[in-house]
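Work Package 3 (structural annotation) set out to generate three-dimensional models for the target panel prioritized at the project kickoff. During this period the team completed the workflow that converts sequence records into discrete structure tokens, so that structures can be stored uniformly alongside our sequence database. As a representative example, we reproduce one entry of 153 residues exactly as it appears in the project archive.
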Amino acid sequence: MKIEVQDNTLQVAKNFEKQVREQPLIVKTALGRTAEYLMGLIKQRTVQGKSANLTTFPPYTEAYKKFRQKAGRQTQFPDLTFSGQMLSNITQRSEPSYAIIYFANKFQNIKALGNQNKRRFFAIASNEVTPIMNVFMKEFNKLSIIKWVKEKI
């Protein structure tokens, strides 16, 4: 018995590109929801003290550890959440062809840049790529179906 595998990857990609051109609002919404998901991943990983490389953050300096302890903050591992303002300031903006996540407040952006230089937290981890793509496809498909149903009613 001979089994043949047919690869329709190219056709699937062409069909998807066509849908993207024909449904920019759906793509924009799906990208926005995907960006929100990524923001959650970054925040969750960061408060657990893990970098985008999935390694633990380098420890706080002794001086900063004492400062945090005096302020009643945890000191067991760096979580980049002294006040919580920096991570809560992460926001997103989406367009039909892309989405970006960023720090809306200039001060929080500067603080994040300083932290990023010491502890790489604001990036996509290797194990997050597939789940992010899955979220986009799930949202895109869901929104496409909703649109199709509304058009049929």
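The radius of gyration is 21 Å.
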